[in-house]
Design a protein that fits this description.
With about 425 residues, the chain is α+β, with helices and mostly antiparallel strands. Among the domains are: about 90 residues, no CATH class; about 100 residues, Zincin-like (2-Layer Sandwich), CATH 3.30.2010; about 40 residues. It is about 40% helix and about 15% strand. The chain has 13 helices and 15 strands. A hairpin with a 6-residue loop joins β4 and β5. The chain is flat and about 70 Å long.
Amino acid sequence: MGLARVHLPSGAVVRISEAAARRAAAKPDRSEAACLRELEILGGPGVLEDEAGVAVDPLDLPLRDAHTLRALVLRAGILPEPEGDYTCGHCGIAFHVAPSRLFEPGPFFDGELDDPDLDAPFEFAKAHSVGGSRVGSRPVRLAERTARQSLPLWRAAAADELRLSPAVVVAMGVAALGRERRASAIADALASAPERVWREIVELYHAAYFPARLVGVQRCAECKARNDLDVPLERGLPRAAPPPARASARRRAAFPDLDAFEARVRRFASEVYRARGVRNIDLFIDAGVPACDDGGEPLLGCYTPGGTDAEIGIAQSPEVRIFYRTFQSEFERDPDFDVDAEIRETLDHELTHHLHHLAGSDPLDDDERAEIDREEARLVGQREAARRAARGFVGDLSAFARATWPVWLVAFLATALGWCAR
């Protein structure tokens, strides 16, 4: 990291000295909670300063800024992060990784924090809707917090069991729950809230105080799915519901089993095929691990053009494949996921690919691949993407030279002999 200039989510710019940070990291750990160790290092002599050279106390920074700097400390290896055991959320294959090593710091160093989604400021003035609570009102309003104001939460989170005291609620930034503004009443309501409600509040907390860029992206070696891991992994507020959590009394209908799902797909397929004026396209409902696109996102469906198999020489018909498990996971993740509407849309989307294929050009496929490239550039930053492309070009050129140098040598010798003969 050297003496690096870092752009923070708040718009502030600071300078951080890696050498000073490593000296601070070598001193005994005096932090009161695990997630405070990085901030203790950042507060060391000569580690953090503003553009005028004035020392900056990381505890006085807005939380989004403080957590960004924590992520950079871990990414640089100033504070070693042990590998954790994870499983792919798509296929279930285990993998071992230190999430911070996968974090992309380029946009913070290059000052590219202008993406309308990844860098959008949180709306603290807005009341955000979550599931019902004992207070009787749905909206939750959070207030901006500094790292120092969050100390009671981090200390409480260091215990074996999180107790939602009024001080912890204030440290979480929960300023209002409906019309209720008393921290003690809000603490009681959250402590007895259904698990679904608590999880929504936790997600709201993460959205408010952790920039969307603070992720480590692990591509599964088996299925190529994208797995997003929290960076920093220690975030103070656990995602599990605190006791005593009550199960939600209201549940929507269960996702259809495979036979029922296939019946619905085929019923809608007959309508969509007829509307599109196509036939003789095989339809397969796949209950295995779904395929992913080039960006690592699980597919709802895919289209495979017909042709002759190169290995066995047998002609194959065009195929539309619908992935049962992707529909199931989306249904479980999103309470507003409309299974029937998504089946229709997916079938129509794949038939559009078929019609474009027959026309000899598939602009829909081109758009999808371009969007994957744009998403990658958004995450790593435009300048870092350009640097990687340049390094890739040089690497390809070097590999080409290594592989073909005998040919060039022979050509050179032949040319030289020709000149000598003349």
